[in-house]
Amino acid sequence: MPAPLLEMRQIVKTFGSLRANDHVDFEVQSGEIHALLGENGAGKTTLMNVLYGLYQPDGGEIYWKGEKITLHSPRDAIRHRIGMIHQHLMLVPNFTVLENILVGLPSPKEPFLPIQETLTRLEDFAAQYGLPIDPTLKVKQLPLGLQQRVEILKALFRGADLLILDEPTAVLSPLEVEEFFAVLKNLVGKGVSIIFISHKLDEVLRISDRITVLRQGKRIGTIETRQATQPILAEMMVGRAVALDHSFPKGGAAQPILELKGVSLTRPKVGRVLKEITLTLHSGEILGIAGIDGNGQEELADVVCGLIPYSAGQMFIEGRSILNPTPRKMKAAGLGYVPADRQRVGLVKNFSIAHNLVLKSFDAPPFNAYGFLREKVVRLNAQQIIAEFDIRAADLLQPVGELSGGNQQKVILGRELKLAQRLLVAVHPTRGLDVGATESVRQFLHAQKQKGIGILLISADLDELLAMSDRIAVLFRGEILGVVPGEAASLPAISRMMLGERLEATA
Ligand SMILES: Nc1ncnc2c1ncn2[C@@H]1O[C@H](COP(=O)(O)OP(=O)(O)OP(=O)(O)O)[C@@H](O)[C@H]1O
Ligand SMILES: [Mg+2]
C-alpha cells in the first residue's frame, strides 16, 4: 500500500473535562472518499477542526503526504492544500458570489483585488468541475444547494488536494444530492480526496470507499464500504443493534384543527409563491407536505405560523377564522414551530441551554413571577428536556454554541415541541440528527399525534414522510397537486407529483 495522503495518529482533544477526541487514529488514502460516521456529539467535527488548524490538539500527530506537520490555523491547512466546508455554511450573505470567493484571497496587486483574473479563473473552474454559478448574484439570493457550491468553489480556488465536507447533504433535497454526488465523483477524478460526513447511511454506502466510525470520542473501526451494511454501521455507531426504517400506525384523526381556504401569497418581484392553498389538518393527524425545496414549503410554514401575512384566502383554527395571524396569536393558539433555518432563527449561541429552552416563554408563568425569571423552574425545565431528547452536554448551563451540531438541533426541537399544545409545524425535524435521535424524534411526534395534536410535517425526506404521515400533500410551484392517504402512498407516485405530474384521485 502506498503511504496514505493523510494520517492522524492518536489525536486527543479535550474541552474542560470532556474528551471530544480520545486517541483517534484516522487515515485517508489518495483518491478515496472516506466517510466519517458517528452519533451526534461523537467528535467528528472536532477531529476535522483539528485537521483544519482550527483547534490545537492536546495530543497526537498529523502526517500529510508522508511528513509530520503542525497546523496553527486554517491558513496553515490551506497552505498544505487542505480545504474544509463547515457544517454550517460560512458565507457572507450580503456579498456576491465573487466577493465571497475573493475574501481573504491574497492579491498580487495589493490593495487592488484581482477581480478580472478571478472571474476568468472562476469560469475555468466552474467548467472543469461542473459547478456552474453566476458570480454576480448575492449569496443570500441563492438556494442552499448553490450556496454550498460557492463554498466548494471557494475551497478549490485556494487549492485543495483534500476536501473536508462536514454534513454537506443535510441541507440538500434528494435531487440536489444526486447532482452533488456527481460533483464529488468528478472531483475525485481530478485528483481530489474527500472526507465526507453524513448521518444518512444510505448516502454513505453509495458514495464512499471506506468508512471510519467514532463513538464518544473514540475510533471504533474503519471498514471497506463494500463490506458494510446499514445495520452494521448503526451498531458500530451506537454500540447496540438499532431499529431502522420503523413505520408508525396511521389513522385516528378527529376534528379539523387547522383549515386553509384558498390561501395565496404574492411576493414582490417573485410573484405568487403560494397559489390558493386549500388544506385541512385534523387533530391527531400528521399531514405530510412533500415537495422539492423551493416550491413554497417554507412560505407555507411561515404563513401558518403568522410570520408572513398572506395575500388572499382564509385561515381557521378549530373553525374560528384567524384574521391577520401573528406569531404571538399563533403561539397563544397552541402552535409550536420548528423552522427550516434553525441557525438563523432558533438559538442564541452564547446563552445557556437552559435559557435557550425558555427563549419564547421566559416572560410568562411558570418561568416568570412578578417580572423575575424563576431560575429554579428554568433549570428544572432544562433537566427534563435534556433527558427526554437525550441532549449530550456537559451541563445545562453550557452555552449552546459549544454543543455539537446535532445537539443544537435537539435544543430547538425540545423547546418547540413542548410549546406545541394543539398544533405543530415541523420543517425537516430530523435534519442533522443521528439515527438514534431521529428515531426518538419520530416517536415523540407520533406520541404527540396520539395525544390529539395536529402536525404539519414538512420534510424533504420522502422516507420520513411515508413512515410518519396519515396523509401526504404534494406541493409544486406553490400549488397543492394532490393529497394521498399515507397508507396508499408510493414513493414513485409521489416523486412524479413532486416534479409536477397531477394526480386525479385526491383524498
Ligand atoms: N468549543 C467547544 N467547547 C466545549 N465543548 C465542545 C466544543 N466543541 C465541541 N464540544 C463538545 O465536543 C463533543 C464533540 O462535538 P462534535 O461537534 O465534534 O460532534 P459531532 O460528531 O460533529 O456531532 P454532530 O453529528 O452533532 O455534528 C460534544 O460533546 C461537544 O459538546
Ligand atoms: Mg458535527
What does this structure look like?
With 507 residues, this protein is α/β, with parallel strands linked by helices. The protein has 2 domains: 6-238, Rossmann fold; 249-326 and 454-507, 3-Layer(aba) Sandwich (Rossmann fold). Helices cover 32% and strands 26% of the residues. It is built from 17 helices and 22 strands. The protein has helices spanning 44-51, 74-79, 97-102, 115-129, 144-157, 174-189, 201-207, 230-238, 297-304, 327-332, 342-345, 353-356, 375-388, 405-419, 435-450, 462-468, 491-498, and strands spanning 6-15, 18-28, 33-38, 59-64, 67-69, 82-85, 162-166, 193-197, 210-215, 218-224, 256-267, 271-282, 286-290, 312-317, 320-321, 335-338, 368-369, 372-373, 423-427, 454-458, 471-476, 479-485. The mean pLDDT is 89. It binds adenosine-5'-triphosphate and magnesium ion.
Which terms summarize this structure?
Rossmann fold, six-stranded mixed β-sheet, 32% helix, 26% strand, binds adenosine-5'-triphosphate, binds magnesium ion
